[in-house]
Amino acid sequence: MRVGLFIPCYIDQFYPQVGLATVEVLERHGVEIDFPTAQTCCGQPLANTGCLEEARSLAQNFVQIFEKYEYVVCPSGSCTSMVRHHYDQFFPDDPKFHEFTHRVFELCEFLIDVLKVDRIAGRFPYRVGLHQSCHGLRELRLGKSSELVGEPFSKAHKLLGSLEGISLSQLTRPDECCGFGGTFAVAEEAVSCMMGRDRIFDHERAGTEVLTALDMSCLMHLDGLIRRDGKKMRVMHIAEILAGRAV
Amino acid sequence: MPTDHALRAAEFVADSERAHWHDQALWFVRVKRDRMAQSLPEWETLRDTAGAIKAHTMSRLGDYLEEFEQQATALGAKIHWARDAAEHNAIVLSILQSHSVKKVVKSKSMLTEECHLNPFLERHGIEVVDTDLGEWIVQLAGEPPSHIVLPAIHKKKEDVGEIFHRFLGTDKGASDPIYLTEAARHHLRQKFMQGDAGITGVNFAIAETGGFVVCTNEGNADLGVSLPKLHIACMGIEKLIPRARDLGVFLRLLARSATGQPITTYSSHFHGPVAGGELHIVLVDNGRSEILKSDEFRRSLNCIRCGACMNTCPVYRRSGGHSYGTTVPGPIGSILAPARDAKLFAGLPHACSLCGSCTDVCPVKIDLHHQLLTWRGEIGRRGLLPLSKTLPMKLMAFVFRRPWLYSFAGRVGRRIMSLTPKWLLYNRFNSWGRQRELPPVPPQSFRELYARRQHQQN
Predict the structure, then answer these.
(1) From B431, which residue of chain A is nearest by alpha-carbon distance?
(2) DSSP helix, strand, coil percent of chain B (3-state; round to 5)
(3) In this predicted complex, what is the ipTM?
(4) What is d(CA B93, CA B97) in angstroms, rounded to the nearest whole number?
(5) A235: alpha, beta or left, given left = phi > 0 and alpha = psi -120 to 50?
(6) Measured between alpha carbons, how far is residue A147 from residues A143, A176, B249, B311, B349 in Å?
(7) At what angle do helices A52-66 and B368-381 cross, to 10 degrees?
């Protein structure tokens, strides 16, 4: 199976190790990877600011670059959700596009739903706190959010829980937003940082040694606070844990 | 330029202890709501049903309004139609003046807050007392409510003690909730006895019967309209539901979502005036039919004002209701306000991290965070975004459209970041870096490392 790898711009520029870990996890599960270098950004920051015309041109680029792939995989719930749930405004009445969006997957959901992976080989003897990134949770529905009534599930927890020696933190607020929110992090800096610190405090109380998430953007914000406050908690993207990277 | 919300939010957050107290007080309500929701296996079915009933009602609101008018009139109520807040206030005043009313007792009504009825009546020499305890507290303090269900949630019991000491003469420094509530009850009883007319809001008006329901936890709506012979009920036109049997769906959702109670303590049904009295119902548009026209925002009229989106909103909990500068704050308020004045409230849809929690708690399934996002696009389309937002985005789009420029700018940018001394990097224009470290700067991007890896493997 050959997939188009979609690496979000900020991972490309600031967290190349997360991209490489994604490549390794996929290759280990028999996937061949193609990384089209014409890709840049899915346009989410522009759309979320309200600059729809600018976002439209990036969305058109994106679809042009990736539509030839059977599957597109991305190590970010938020960027995946941008394509799957928010591109339709740029492609009204285009059935080809509609079909395309169903082939774009976040990494964990690709492993579970397409590759039918139910456990990851490896050992990770740490207490891990999963930050449930909002767009993965409440847009892609990679888990049941705490607001809804129904059978609990979480694709990320399922994969993490299969690692040997791992223990998962129990939080008092299992899926509250970290306060990143794209430009929100800067435009509403005070609230954003308070939200982030509250999440970190919850993880500290739960004994989290390694803080992880499906989205490096949330982790960039949380890690920025952790390092500024001189805390010991380590931050890793879920792909790095699944790839067996050392802490 | 920070928005008004961002500035007021920063002030709120600056008092860290109080901001945390506010966050936890509302989170406590959210947890109670979760417990109640989880106790009903049919919860999601109820939400689906409520959303569908409201969507249906909105699709033929005109018909249902006429049906309600006929049925309510047949029950002996007098119906008034108000295009906007000014008409609403004028209608209420004229009814009160024709009965020589000097003192009014009013139960909670966000509509009358929206229309600023209290100051209007006071200017015309009519005393209005808000009889909901929370509303009365903020009325005494001279403030607007900060939450639609818990109007004084931003006040600690010590603050309430201070206000009551000043206005009711309770002991200085007393903050015991039972003592303060007793004092409030005593004072409010006198107001109820003296009231010449009672004004209430409306939670649900039923087209089929012409009746309406008012939900309170304090029984103050019933008290307020039991003694006086004049009852004025003020409602937005979106409060309608088609049939009496639909009521059960909404009453089960409302209190569970609002405060985590199985049902409000008093759900009072009104069908026409009391014997020898008068019942006036004022139906207010005030911008609602404009929202009704819009495919994108029509669903915001489904709102039953339970306040669950506020209780769950991580931004609202940490910025307080007053930071929004609107009668209805929080997620739903940030959708309704720009519909009224997009220019004035252009910043509100951005007072949101797009976490989507509001959408998942909403008992009538309004896709709140998507509507907030749609508003951002709408504000952009109308040219109401400040240059400080559009300029960086235009620049970003220019770079992102050119992969070579993007790679080049990334390389140069990372190089500059790694060479710039820390004191210069963390300058006063860097709002990211005020409380946070910037991400570490790797020497090579993913695409560079991946190209090298592919090269080595081949």
Answers:
(1) A186
(2) 60, 10, 30
(3) 0.97
(4) 6
(5) beta
(6) 12, 10, 19, 12, 22
(7) 110
Asked if B295 has any chain A CB less than 8 Å from its own CB, the reply is no
The overall longest dimension of chain B from CA atoms, in Å, is 95
Class in CATH terms, A127-242: alpha beta
Fold of A2-114: Rossmann fold (3.40.50)
Domains delineated in chain B = 40-155+196-290 (3.40.50.10420), 402-457 (no CATH)
Give, for B106, the enclosing helix (H) or strand (E). strand B103-106
Q: Do A189 and B5 touch (CB under 8 A)?
A: no
Check CB contact of A145 with chain B, cutoff 8 Å.
Answer: yes
Q: Is residue B440 within 8 angstroms of chain A, CB to CB?
A: yes
Q: Which of A189, A218, A225 to mutate against chain B (most B CBs within 10 Å)?
A: A189
Instruction: Look at residue B1 in the predicted model and tell me its pLDDT.
Output: 67
Inter-chain touch A138–B377, beta carbons under 8 Å: no
Residue B458 scores a pLDDT above 90? no
Residue B170: C-alpha distances to residues B164, B166, B185, B386, B395 (Å): 6, 8, 12, 49, 61
Between chains, do B5 and A43 touch, taking CB under 8 Å as contact? no
Helix (H, G, I), strand (E, B) or coil at B234: strand
Q: Output the pTM of the full model.
A: 0.97
Domains of chain A by residue range: 2-114, 127-242
The verdict on a CB contact (< 8 Å) between A179 and B444 is: no
What does the alpha-carbon distance between residue B433 and residue A189 come to, in Å, rounded to a whole number?
Answer: 10
Our CA-based measurement puts residue A124 at a distance from the nearest CA of chain B, in whole angstroms, of 24
pLDDT classification of A93: cutoffs 50, 70, 90: confident
